[in-house]
Amino acid sequence: MEVKYRGAEAIVETGLWLGKKAIFKTRNKRGYRHPILEKKLVKERLRSESRIIERLISSGVNVPAIYSVDISNNCIIMEFIDGITLEKALRGDNFEKYLAQTAKLLSLLHSLNVVHGDPTTSNFMVTDSVYAIDFGLSTVSDDNEDRASDLRVFLESLDSHHSEISGRDIFLSYYSEWSRSTSVLEALKILELRGRYNLMRG
Ligand SMILES: Nc1ncnc2c1ncn2[C@@H]1O[C@H](COP(=O)(O)OP(=O)(O)O)[C@@H](O)[C@H]1O
Ligand SMILES: [Mg+2]
């Protein structure tokens, strides 16, 4: 196995699973909670993460297939998406195409009542098309404010990493093709106004 990524929450390794290249994502033990409670919480998260991914797969959404969930080792084994992160892809040509696909993907998640929770540009992978990964903070919700918060996280990560391109308008115009997007976009406006107001007040 080869370590691909070591984050605060998880370690991501590549290896073989039944002869296929796979991702082994192991959630770290945090250490500061009550150990039994901690074990329970990590398990709950892992179950919920894999349940949400299964739900998306059965709806035909572009997410990595789950090969196995190893509860005792806090590990999800999943399909290796052989591509680059969206963050990287947006630095090349075709950024409009990728933004469009990401907007459609996120609206598809939302239409299935899944809120991603952390849709930054490093939580999408680009191959022939765009895939969503990292469902560690995902929830099942049909709340338009939750959906708007997904949009805000994405737009902020666009802004901080890709300020040279006017991604915002492109992204929102494709998201708004979803028939139920109007209320989400209204909620986004309120969320952003509130954010600016709080900034002003310091
Ligand atoms: N299924 C996958 N296929 C290919 N690369 C992946 C996959 N899952 C994760 N990665 C890589 O590992 C990185 C971290 O994984 P991620 O699930 O986002 O963990 P974290 O919760 O620590 O952010 C991703 O940004 C991506 O580069
Ligand atoms: Mg991530």
Number of folding domains? Answer: 2
Question: Which runs of at least 5 residues are low in confidence (pLDDT < 50)?
Answer: none
| Strand arrangement in the largest pleated sheet | 1-2-3-5-4
Largest sheet: 5 strands, antiparallel
* CATH topology value of the largest domain: Transferase(Phosphotransferase), domain 1
Helical residue percent band: 40-55%
Strand content: 15-25%
Write down the overall mean pLDDT: 92
By DSSP (H or I, 4+ residues per run), the number of helices equals 6
* Count of β-strands: 10
Please explain how this structure is put together.
The protein has 202 residues and is an alpha+beta fold. The protein has two domains: 2-79, Phosphorylase Kinase, domain 1 (2-Layer Sandwich); 84-201, Transferase(Phosphotransferase) domain 1 (Transferase(Phosphotransferase), domain 1). Helices cover 46% and strands 21% of the residues. It contains six helices and ten strands, in the order βββαβββααββββααα. It has helices spanning 35-58, 86-89, 95-111, 144-161, 167-175, 181-201; strands spanning 2-6, 10-17, 20-27, 66-70, 75-79, 84-85, 114-115, 124-126, 130-132, 139-140. The strands form three sheets. It has a five-stranded antiparallel β-sheet with strand order 1-2-3-5-4, with helices on one face. The site of adenosine-5'-diphosphate (ADP) has 20 residues, from strand 1, strand 2, strand 3 and strand 5.
